[in-house]
Design brief:
484 residues, mainly beta, 6-stranded mixed β-sheet, 37 strands
Length: 484
Amino acid sequence: MSNKIIRLLKVSVVLAFTAAALLIVFLSPAIPVETAASSGGAPTGRTGAPGESTCTSCHSQVTPTGQFNIVAPANYVPGQTYAIEVRNTTTDQSRLSWGFELTSLTGANLSAGSFANSTANTRVRSANGKSYVTQTTAGTFPGQAGGSVWTFNWTAPATDVGPITFYAAGMHADDDGGTDGDQTYTRSAVAQPSQPVVIHHGFADFDGDGKADPSVFRPSSGIWYLNRSTAGFTGMQLGMAGDHLVPADFDGDDKADIAVWREGPPDTAAFYILQSSTGTIRIELFGQTGDDPRLVGDWDGDGKADPAVYRDSAVGPQSYFYYRGSNANPSRNITFLPWGSTADIPMRGDFDGDGKFDPAVLRPSNRTWYVRRSATSTVSYDHWGLPTDTFVTADYDGDGRVDPAVFRGGIWYIKQSSNGQAIYLNWGLSSDIPVPADYDADGKADAAVFRNGVWYIRQSGNGSLRVDNFGLVTDEAVPNAFVR
């Protein structure tokens, strides 16, 4: 693929002489002509993809001594654009000119996505319904030793077409003007379609618009008063004084359902759920007196919240998380997750962003969070907060993962999962009730407090103050995120 010169005796000059009608052929001197495998880019169809050749179609091959690699996304989202890199590296100082050609194909060997140049070192070509990207003359980096890097953009297909394979052939040339003594490499890389992660709206988004709704429960009447941001005000009756408020999307319609858990002995304690999709009451016998029902959430990744409790010292010092999954569970079996020990504080949330809740506890004796990540079955450890803090775990940085967070004396201490950095927000009074949630639909939880019937919300989208007068001093603020 480097600049090669061949000598051909092909040029003839024909001179016609009208008088003698003689045809005289003069052979010209040797004239330099550029080969088809030129420095301005390889001919199409030289990537090593199924049915295609490689650089050896034009160049004789010698034993490779370097490396040739493709840096491509492991997963793709339809329609999204990614930067692709093709890299040559070698310690062979005789390699002084570089080239490549790459294409992207579906499993049926059809063109997948489109390429665009981001520098003057690449060019895009099309042939036989396929798209290729190769080097330009400047992109051969003539005389450069050690290797080369090309960067260009690839836009994924508009729809999920299954796994996409990038095929590429590379050339480490000696830049001597001949077709021998060059090294050809081939490489492929596969990008899988990204698995959609279920978007879980807040535990108090009662109209499914992505915004948490300031809402209260009045124990004296058992009425929930909902200040829905899109559907407007409404009131519904469910529960009584002493019940635990556990709103969540139990029926998978992307709207939080009004729900309570009522203590009792085994086979009596129950979740009472008013399903928003049907307007009917669902009763789930689950747990027993002393359990913590604030662990409700999507434990199996199907987009529906599951009845769940945490039982301290369930078997000796061993504590357990229990949940009844709704995903492929026709027998309604209960899943037992041994995690934590006596006096540990349970936490709720998806700490690894895979769409499933992870068992997590804080151990007061060493102030360590222990999280068993469902995506990898590995354990992460974190030191954050004091056992006497109010825990307000939520996704404050919008990366789809819950952040360890506490509320102490009117200050929010948040450790962002996106970068491991801490942020501190002075918002509220020590006597306030924290009610964090995404009230402005920017994908990030907002610091918020409930004080004597008034909601004070710091909107993360613009940092502005929002004040909602909603509820009475004696009302219970409906929990939007996990608060303990």
